[in-house]
């Protein structure tokens, strides 16, 4: 790997949202040189963060690709998240918080979790500039997601299950007791590293800072989905994805094989890699191997 520091550019672009009622800006970070002649034949990798409601920070590990393969990385915080414009006044407005769309000319696209849901939807429109799609730990439908979470939840210690059940029944999902029970689940299926990497902590911390997007679109937790995402599905449209696609998840992932299987069964040009020692943060838990698989896919362009 090169030891030369990568070029980093940060900025904001205006994002026109008439329903927002105020000017909005989307924050972005570009790591690597998009205009470097040595890498001009390589598409930048645009990375879509999960949540919804976290920020780009936990995807910074993808910058490993720059040192290894000179692949530039484009990160951004979705509207309502991280460094982009926040709209707490839109809490509960399910008509406002919908899927966002990209405006990039030629690129590869990686989406993690919720970001993979966005990426799949975008790829299904068959945009001319998209060359490769990578879906990491994302569900093909929220029905499958909730079903998988309930199976994993049933394997938790009984006292933890009882706390979850009681607080959901009582409507006290913001209580410390409920959140501590959710944390037990996360330690098994969200990120098994202890301590959790600081960029992951930073990203997840944004939900506590501003829960507008997460609570409105999703709901109280991974397995208690009450927002409009409850009806989300790509199962019927997955076959419309025509670019080479790489699927990745972890053995202990919230995104169990059952939630990703429709992508594998329906996308025409697809490869699937499951990481044996990982949960939902495969790009941290098995970072070196993850980058090897991803870099090979992006460079070879084959499945």
Automatic annotation (TrEMBL):
Keywords: Hydrolase. Pfam families: Abhydrolase_1. One of its GO terms (molecular function) is peptidase activity. InterPro entries: AB_hydrolase_1, AB_hydrolase_fold, AB_hydrolase_sf, Peptidase_S33, Pro_imino_pep. Residues 44-286 form the AB hydrolase-1 domain. One of its GO terms (biological process) is proteolysis. It comes from the Eukaryota. Gene3D superfamilies: alpha/beta hydrolase. Belongs to the peptidase S33 family. This is Proline iminopeptidase. It comes from Favolaschia claudopus.
């Amino acid at each position: 790997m090169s030891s030369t520091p990568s070029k980093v550019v940060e900025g904001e672009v205006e994002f026109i949202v008439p329903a927002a009622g105020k000017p909005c800006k989307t924050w972005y970070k570009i790591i690597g040189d998009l205009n470097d002649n040595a890498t001009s034949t390589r598409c930048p990798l645009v990375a879509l963060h999960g949540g919804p409601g976290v920020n780009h920070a936990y995807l910074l590990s993808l910058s490993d690709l720059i040192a290894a393969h000179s692949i530039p990385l484009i990160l951004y915080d979705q509207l309502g998240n991280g460094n982009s414009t926040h709209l707490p006044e839109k809490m509960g407005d399910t008509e406002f918080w919908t899927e966002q769309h990209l405006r990039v000319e030629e690129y590869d696209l990686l989406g993690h979790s919720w970001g993979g849901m966005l990426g799949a939807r975008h790829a299904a429109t068959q945009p001319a500039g998209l060359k490769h799609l990578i879906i990491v730990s994302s569900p093909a439908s929220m029905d499958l997601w909730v079903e998988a979470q309930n199976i994993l939840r049933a394997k938790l210690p009984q006292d933890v299950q009882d706390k979850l059940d009681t607080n959901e029944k009582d409507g006290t999902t913001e209580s410390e007791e409920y959140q501590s029970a959710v944390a037990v689940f996360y330690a098994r299926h969200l990120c098994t590293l202890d301590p959790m990497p600081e960029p992951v902590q930073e990203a997840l911390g944004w939900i506590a800072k501003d829960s507008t997007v997460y609570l409105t679109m999703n709901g109280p937790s991974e397995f208690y989905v009450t927002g409009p995402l409850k009806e989300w599905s790509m199962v019927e449209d997955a076959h419309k994805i025509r670019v080479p696609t790489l699927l990745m998840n972890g053995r202990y992932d919230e995104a169990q094989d059952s939630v990703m299987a429709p992508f594998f069964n329906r996308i025409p040009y697809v490869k699937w890699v499951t990481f044996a020692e990982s949960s939902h943060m495969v790009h941290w838990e098995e970072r070196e191997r993850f980058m090897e698989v991803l870099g090979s896919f992006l460079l070879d362009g084959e499945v």
